[in-house]
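Chain A, query sequence.
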Amino acid sequence: MTPERPAGAAAHPTPKSSRPPKRGRTPAGKEPKRQSGPEDGGLYAALDLGTNSCRMLIARPNGAQFEVIDSFSRAVELGTGLESTGRLGHVPMARTVQALRICRRKLDDHAVIRMRLVATEACRRARNSAEFIRKIQRETGLRLEIIPAEEEARLAMISCAPLVAPETEQLLVIDIGGGSTELVWIDLAAVTPEERRRAILAVKLGLRSQVQAPQLPGQARVVDWISVPLGVATLREQFNDVEDDAARFALMSWHFEEQLHDFSPYQNPAPRDGFQIIGTSGTVTTVAASYLGLKRYDRNKVDGLTMTSAQIDKVIRDYLALGPEGRRTDPRIGRERHGLIMSGAAILQALMRVWPTDVMSVADRGLREGLLYAQMTHDGVLAGL
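Chain A, predicted structure.
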């Protein structure tokens, strides 16, 4: 399957909005405990249903940032079997619906009105995804929208805006997901350092229309973007038949790099000066936690950390030395991620091989945070934006 580049609609018709059908109602349709909305600094929610995980954040605006009030994360493995059948399986769908019932209860408990609930690569690719979206709405009251890869890339980029360094003129944002990997290259040379975060937040849907467009003073320009239909789950599934651990890792890494040849910065890499890579995903944060030796994950130590290429490479070599059984019991990796960490590390190594920059910034943030920033920016409830 070739990487997706052009702008386009979701693979299947999707609802126009993920919000409840009636103003002042929760997804279940009952009366909320407390009215909330942009005018009174109320709560917002963002839900990301991916190929491997179902995750949700509930937050309120707090200055130029937001404060997380509640969260949910569960490995539902929705994409299990998708590579071979082209369809979502009954058991993965049942697991996902059960997780979404918990999400609905949390939305009800907090009386959330402003929300965006999205599904990504597994639902984009599955032939029965439209049927599954209807099943979710019927059984949970939640209306999910299947967003195109372009929108997923934009939201991942938005979430990383606060981590952009003042000296950055060329920015590469990498989001390694369960079913796909998004890369967005942004030119910030025409934006003053103090305006760069605002400029990134202002990038609208339609990234392809901005590629190679003239760069206006004070505006960020999208040099190129790509969505590679390989993530930690899909890449692992493609190479499951390779028994040797090291050989499987090498094959996965080179196979992923082959998908990057049409990405224009692959042929014309940026100079090291003024160039920043920000990586966001469970793979990146797990590698960071392993580098720090964290047996108990601490977001405050991981988010915003910078790692050199040599440090990343050492962690990956340590993973290979551990072998499958060693990774299974390593507390730094965790039981939910040990089976996916090597496919994610293969993607990460390929990207660091292509762009041999000195450091990568680690972001414990992604699609959910991008959804929240986009909603709050649209409503004008973030200070200074």
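DSSP finds 15 helices and eleven strands in the chain. Residues 5-41 have pLDDT under 50 and may be disordered.
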